[in-house]
Design a protein that fits this description.
This protein has helices at 2-10, 25-37, 40-80, 85-187, and strands at 12-13, 21-22. By secondary structure, it is mainly alpha-helical. The chain has one domain (2-146). A two-stranded antiparallel ribbon has the order 1-2. Helix 2 runs antiparallel to helix 4 (85-187) and helix 3 (40-80) packs antiparallel against helix 4 (85-187). The protein is rod-shaped. The two termini are 77 Å apart.
């Protein structure tokens, strides 16, 4: 944006044009390209969010594995007691089932949160990309309109100068002809 301001400030000002100027369209196009290239910042933020999502899912899986492992250890402990082997197996099975269910719930919730985060990041990036593209298109359109106006004003200015020059030259030629005719008539 600063380069664009600098380009406009340093451009040739058209005389008698209410502040209009001539700018280099190639330089403006390069500046707009540079602005488009700065967009990967939002993309890297989206990638960070995806990494964060993966970390959440991994942590949830680890937690689920720990819950399952604890449940299995508890189940093994209960089974080892001879008097309550049957009851222990039943409770162990219920504990493992509950642990797996809890683990699946944790993983599902983590995936849901991660997907919502990625969706939000994608929407944010798309919105900012769209706004940047719209602003760039608007700036290009305004620059093209100003260039057309300045071209028209320059052509009108050149035409008026040529017309005045023609009138002055025509008056001079007429004056020379009259002087020549007067000198010629005095000789006769």
């Amino acid at each position: 944006m600063d380069k664009l301001d600098e380009l406009l400030n340093d451009s040739f000002k058209v005389p008698l044009s209410n502040g209009k100027c001539i700018v280099d369209q190639v330089l403006i196009t390069e500046i707009l390209e540079d602005m488009r290239e700065s967009l990967p910042v939002e993309l890297s933020q989206a990638e960070a969010i995806v990494r964060e999502r993966n970390d959440i899912v991994t942590a949830a899986r680890r937690e689920a594995d720990i819950i399952v492992k604890n449940a299995e250890e508890k189940a093994r402990h209960l089974v080892s007691q001879e008097e309550i082997v049957v009851e222990a197996r039943k409770q162990a099975s219920e504990i493992v089932t509950q642990a797996r269910s809890q683990a699946n719930d944790i993983v599902a919730e983590a995936k849901k949160i991660a997907n919502e985060t990625v969706t939000s990041a994608n929407e944010y990036s798309a919105k900012h990309l769209r706004e940047t593209q719209e602003r760039a298109a608007q700036m290009l359109s305004e620059t093209e309109a100003k260039t057309r106006d300045m071209k028209k004003m320059t052509e009108e200015y050149v035409d008026s100068i040529l017309k005045k020059t023609y009138e002055v030259l025509n008056d001079a030629v007429t004056g020379v002809k009259e002087t020549h005719a007067a000198i010629k008539s005095k000789k006769l």
